[in-house]
Amino acid sequence: MPWLKPDRKTIKHLTIANLFTILEYLLFFVATVLYYGHEYLKTAGYPVMNMISYLQSPIFERIEILLISFFMFNVVFAVSLFLLMFYGALQITAGKTLEKNSRFGYLASCFLMGTLLVIANEKLWKADTLQNLWPGFFMYSEAATFLLVPILLLIAMRRKGNTYI
Prior knowledge:
- It contains six helices and no strands.
- With 165 residues, it is an all-alpha fold.
- The relative contact order is 0.10.
- The model has no long low-confidence stretch (mean pLDDT 78).
């Protein structure tokens, strides 16, 4: 992995980025708790968006449109990376890692992933009993990601012999 070389300050930059993200979430959480109160916050659907919409400013009036476009960039980027990783995993399991990548194979893996998502949508996500399960699952998986990614990078750097941390 070339980005784990000892001459780079990878852990420092990743720690700073992780710190800024955590501080952003904490700032939004504290602001919404102070704005709504802890009892009403449980019933608010999107508390940050609702809080900003009450400011009655022309800048913040349509801020959800701007935020959706910013968040969609991250979603599209993450989905494209996951599709590439899925295609690579399919190549590894098929034992064709030495062969050249093809557009047909990539499109077939994208079609397979889309089909799996449609099946999961029909079987799992439309059930009323599981509807409240998914937001909690995604919240805990994000929390685990913020915890595990720096730890895994630290373990990878230690295994590589980098003591520059």
